[in-house]
Amino acid sequence: MKKRISNQKITSNLWFDRNAEEAVNFYMSIFKDAQIGRVAYYGSEGFEIHGMPEGTVLTIEFMIEGQEFVALNGGPHFKFNEAVSFIINCASQEEVDYYWDRLTAGGDEKAQVCGWLKDKFGVSWQIVPEALTDMLQDPDKSKTGRMMSALFKMKKLDLKALEAAYNK
Asked: How far is residue 140's CA from residue 135's CA, in Å, rounded to a whole number?
């Protein structure tokens, strides 16, 4: 029997309709530090319970950037929303651009602001330059206020523009 890919105590579970395998492969193509773990399949009872034919993927364990996830094919009962999102902390604008461009492919960036996007599966992500947190922690409220005013007008975050507003 194959073992889990980590000993992480808490694992994020992502409920997909019928495209968990497609979603996992999409994430594997984007994140450099990524691996697939155990895969479980529906038996004959899968159709009875969730309308899934026998042999359809039930769950796929996967890990991206040290974070363990499980993707579940559970049917159309639940949808993703912005109440839960995954933050990608980026060291540079190039890294922000990399993740933004790949995760918005087929997704939705129009309805989101402040670095949030929805990928083509409806999962919400926030692509954030690491320097943003440092700027937000500054006790000089005029600096953080200018930066926040700029931030609230952005979809994809522009580190140079944020730093310019902060340092103005």
From this structure: 9
Sheet holding 34-41, edge to edge: 12-16, 67-73, 57-64, 34-41
Q: Taking a C-beta distance cutoff of 8 angstroms, is the pair 150, 165 a contact?
A: yes
* pLDDT band with cut points at 50, 70 and 90 for residue 1: confident
Q: Span 85-167: which CATH code?
A: 3.10.180.10
Inform me whether the pLDDT recorded for 73 exceeds 90: yes
Q: What's the maximum distance between 2 C-alpha atoms anywhere in the chain?
A: 64
Q: Do the strands 116-118 and 67-73 form a parallel or antiparallel pair, or are they unpaired?
A: unpaired
d(CA 70, CA 58): 10
Q: Same topology for domains 12-73 and 85-167, yes or no?
A: no
| Residue 6: predicted pLDDT | 83
Assign domain 12-73 to a CATH class: alpha beta
